[in-house]
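User: Earlier you gave me the apo prediction for this protein. Now I'd like the version with pyridoxal-5'-phosphate bound, so I can compare the two side by side. Same sequence as before, with the ligand SMILES added.
Assistant: Got it. Here's the input I'm using:
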Amino acid sequence: MPGVIRLQTEVPGPQSRALLARRAEAVPRGVPSVTPIAVVHADGAVLTDADGNRLIDFAGGIGVVNTGHRHPSVVSAVRSQLDQFAHVCFPVSTYEPYVALAERLNHVTPGTHAKRTFLLNSGAEAVENAVKVARAFTGRQAVVCFEHGFHGRTNLAMALTSKVVPYKKGFGPFAPEVYRIPFPYCYRCGEVAAQADGQSSAQCCLASVERLELIFACTVDPDSVAAIIMELELGEGGFVPAPREYVSALAVFAQQHGILFIADEIQTGFGRTGKLFASEHYGLVPDIIITAKSLAGGLPLAAVTGRADVLEAAPPGGLGGTYGGNPLACAAALAVLDIMEAEQLPARAARMGERIRARFCQWAARHVCIGDVRGLGAMIGMELVRDRESKIPDKALTGRLQAAALERGVVLLSSGTYGNTVRVLAPLSTSDAIMDEGLDVLEQALEAVAPASHP
Ligand SMILES: Cc1ncc(COP(=O)(O)O)c(C=O)c1O
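And here is the structure of the complex with pyridoxal-5'-phosphate:
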């Protein structure tokens, strides 16, 4: 069976290289360019570049196209909205797609309590606004975030983000009243023996209310904290899922101290982890849940959804913006929610995750550079190290693997504070055949850059 990858030139080819050269003269280098290809077309899980090469997309626009590129229902919903109107500004005039989307998000997010939703343009904007409403409701100022967490590039989101280079260095001063506590990153915690089989091992040592009391005793008075913001599985931080017992202890601790729990589901949301939201794996009902990325199938949209009493704390005019909840993006998001249900994408993500995990674990049995395989559903990553004893992160090897995959026709992303975790964010609609073709390429790429130690 011929696969979908078709390489007409080396990757990147001359047309891609030419556009990247123009880009370098027109766009500042601070806007990263993770792969050196120029895309002219995308469909499902397949990209076509400017040289006519067809590549498998394991990046999915960084987790934005869980429903696949240009899903026909998304395309037709956006087209028909465009035939009506493209913008009137929601704070000026009300339109149905915004209200319908708020209703749908209030319904599908965890918890049956009364909720409200308002819409914004980007993940970072949702982060900022979630903190705003948490502060308005509690009358408190402090916000607690996590080591290895990522929440965006605006001023407060940058303060909440952990990794210094490239996200923070030189960009201060940062927003005040932000406190950071350790993330339960069991593979790198000295107290726990990690395994490379994808199963988390012993009990998480941070997972008790007593331990959290101690951490806060050295960090910030919990009674001055408005909210804790957490990614239940770190995205940019290296695809590290928090242990269930840790999240339970944290939720109890937060409730005891009147602290709101903000779940940042911008990367974990919309089926990626095998459930519509990662919170569902934890039995967690966040006070506020923030979404963006795959919410609108490729159009810019973000949402803050949460307890009605919390979200009603901000006065009229305190929330919103010119473009937030653009009607084209709302139409796309309503189509995305329909597709999630009709194509049962969360269940598909769970099966896709098993397929990826099985291959990663097979490779881990042969390649000692694979230190850990982990993740929920299809949010799977493998952490590359010099060797399993030292666990020294191997960022250079990760870069070589990405380059080797690209040369062979697969677009692949890395992540992690140490830049050494390979992550798969392929559309959840990717067929088994395309997934297998992509994984075969990845296996060849791995063999090319780090030959197996035991065949
Ligand atoms: C967990 C998380 N929060 C926030 C953001 C910021 O989103 P945006 O880039 O849309 O501002 C991201 C983006 O990667 C993210 O993964």
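For your comparison, keep in mind: Residues 192-200 have pLDDT under 50 and may be disordered.
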